[in-house]
Amino acid sequence: MSVGRCQTSILAVVFVLLNGCAQPRPFDDLWVDARPYRAELNPVRPPSDVLSHHDTSTQIVEPANPQGNITLHDAVSLALEQNPGLKANGWSVAAAEADAMQLGRPRNPTVSLGVENFGGPERLQELPRQTLRISQVIELADKRNKRLRLGQAKQRLIAWDYEQQRIEVAATTASRYVAVLVAQARIELTQQQLELATKAYAIADDRVSNGTRPGFERDQAAARVALIQIELDLAKEGLDSARADLAASWGANQSRYEQVSGDLDLQAELPPLDTLQQRIAQSPRVARWADEIAMRQSNIELQRANGVTDPSVGGGIRYLSELDETLGVAEVSWPLPLFDDNEHGILAARLRLSQAVAQQDAAKAESSRLLTRAHSRAQAGAKTLATLRDTAIPAAAAAYEATREAYEAGQTE
Questions:
Q1: 406: CB partners within 8 A, 6+ apart
Q2: Which residues is 357 bridged to in the sheet?
């Protein structure tokens, strides 16, 4: 065989082995389907072309910080678009896909240059041999594609983590929004109490000055004003803290909005517990385990493939100086699986699959327990709210109005 044909054959083999490298999947395929909660809103994600460009630098942009009045929809939408933690997790999803693509790459070929018959007797040094080889490990048992599938399965689990965080960001933002709404209402109520107490102090002061009432009544009225003023100051500090927490949901260092809008008297209907229990499978904490089990099954397949040894095929040219000729060389090497066939690697993968099945059952049980507890607390809260709305608040309002009229009429007895 001529040297030219030998070189051409070697290059052809290398081309075939390197062809068909893993390509990135469509960007939308990297994410799991959004759960129903706030699914209509668009959360922050990396650019859709991030896997096809080597330059992943991003420009630092100051987060939007709204002014004026904001609604719950405004707050949650802004948080999903700008939350720093969610943004960071989005990059993890894309990076995991890049890791999977790397696992799908074939091994690099090896080039070696050998020189023989030097450093010995003088007559041998006159007959040096130079050999240039290129070799390639040929992976059997479809190892490369199995590595790729395992990497993509791991990427999907990270996508589930992103979806879980998306829901948590939306829920936390809604909770912080309600906290601001409650703090606003508390200040309004405390200001009304302070106004009433101030009027009572003015009446007591007039009576003490006229000599119709003892002086300690004015002192008592002054103490009530001071205590309510302290309560108002604490309520304002609480509002500032709640406002800052809400602004942090969308990555702002300080709050610039004036107030949040909402109705604390609005009561949503609580679904039956049985209905909610049927939806547990949609929760990311539970749904992710189906993909976790699939990932561990893929790992079993990869470990089985790793038990198959891979041959190395190579070829090259050798120059014989004594004949001034160039010859072709070829070689094949194949590890013998005499001591290691990856038996325990396969066993460990099987055991981890059994572990995942048990963890799936545990996740369902824990989610059911947490849901039952949350549902009970929600029911208790709904009953408390109904009692306050139907009985306690009307009675307190009537007492407040009677007290206000009594003070305005100068009646303190």
A1: 412
A2: none
String of DSSP letters for 130-156: EEEEEEEE---TTHHHHHHHHHHHHHH
Answer whether 258's CB lies under 8 Å from 68's CB: yes
Burial of 31 per CB tally in 10 Å (0-12, 13-18, 19+): middle
Beta carbons within 8 Å of 341's beta carbon, 6+ residues apart? 307
- Exposure letters 344-359 (e unless 16+ CB within 10 A, then b): ebbeebeeebeebeee
Q: What is the pLDDT of residues 187-222, one digit of tens each?
A: 999 998 899 889 888 888 888 888 878 888 889 989
Q: Tens digits of per-residue pLDDT, 147-162?
A: 999 999 999 999 999 9
Q: Are 46 and 90 in contact (CB under 8 A)?
A: yes
Residue with tokens 């306690």: 392
pLDDT-flagged residues of the chain (< 50):
1, 3, 6-7, 10-11, 13-15, 17-18
State both tokens at 268. Answer: 């949503």
- pTM score, two decimals? 0.85
